[in-house]
Amino acid sequence: MEEKKRFKVYKIIMLVILVAFITFIITSISMYQYFTKEANLGKYIISSTGNKDIANKLEKYKSIIDRYYLGEVNEDKLKEGAIKGYIEGLEDPYTEYISKEDMQDFMDDTTGNFVGVGIYMVKDEEKNRVMVLSPIKNSPAEKAGILPGDLIIKVDNVEYTADDMSVLANKIKGQSGTTVKVEILRNTETKTFELKRKSIKVNPVEGKKLEKDIGYIEFNSFDEGTAEDFKNKFKDLEKQGIKSLIIDLRNNGGGIVDEALEIADYIADKDSVLLYEVNKENKEEVKKSKNNPIINMPIIILTNKNTASSSEILCGALKDLGKAKTVGTKTYGKGVIQQLLSLPDGSGIKITSEKYLTPNKTEINKIGIEPDEKVELPESVTNILRVDEKDDTQLQKAIEMLK
Known about the structure:
The protein is α+β, with helices and mostly antiparallel strands. The protein has 3 domains: 4-105, no CATH class; 113-201, Roll (Pdz3 Domain), CATH 2.30.42.10; 206-336 and 354-402, 2-enoyl-CoA Hydratase, Chain A, domain 1. Helix content is 27%, strand content 28%. Strands 1, 3, 4, 16, 17, 20 and 21 form a 7-stranded antiparallel β-sheet that branches. Strands 2, 6, 7, 8, 9, 10 and 11 form a 7-stranded antiparallel β-sheet that branches. The longest helix has 20 residues, at 49-68.
């Protein structure tokens, strides 16, 4: 039996597709840490009586198509459609079939460098549309005026639903310098954007010194190298004399879990429990901090409804360990982990295989994390990605608490 590679996926996001081209998360899936394991998947296909029944049914339908169907038959498309439909029957928003053509893009997402228009997307199940979670800062999408909450209706004049999100994302990506037409629905108004694709660096870690020697660091996802960038940014601020720190995880859809754990390791005491991973057999794997902390100062984490996955891991760990207070609104609530299984034909399946718990063994999935201090933004703020500091009541509360 042929051996297959198995990759462990720590993607966001709420099934967030990062179309920069970013394709969680958040899953997001928005980003993952992987390793190779031997996995004999073929035996399940052969030994399962249920799968034999499915094969027999499909064979009957194939006979009907061969006998009656007037048009041309593409066997590969039929097989792909059958597999995709079977997996969709799980009704899990984070489990999906990935075609051979999409696998390399999926694997490349860990680098944080993409060619596309710069949109984080998520399925809006209620409206059966693909919704813009947020445009990436300084991306073609943001500069053109695409906003969080916009529903993507058409790409290059072809209409798509939430079920077509992977296909839609593939249509948006392309070569740098080429253009794509995106039609969105904003409330009751339809808008069309001509966007030029470009190479985009996702998730820069940004920081600055605020009043009263307060440091401020923000980033939008946990990509490969984010933890190192975070440490370097903190060191820069430390040289400027900061005495406390605000970590802004608002609108951070998650990403590579190991990057979040490494940042937690900078702050938590050595050997502290940071995370519990629980699999189908209810077996726990404990993740602990490995080093002495390099950050020893008061910390406040800013959160909102788009704080998800790896962001919730970092937030939950530091909150439970008493290393940080949280300010803002309740987080998204994605507390499950996916694995990517690669098949011999080059296709794969991203499948939910584990859930995670905070150090206090608190469930996150579909629940989220309540902040220590609940603070809403004022109603005058219409774009949560572009909040003037004078209107940012959440940031103001954090500063007040740290003074």
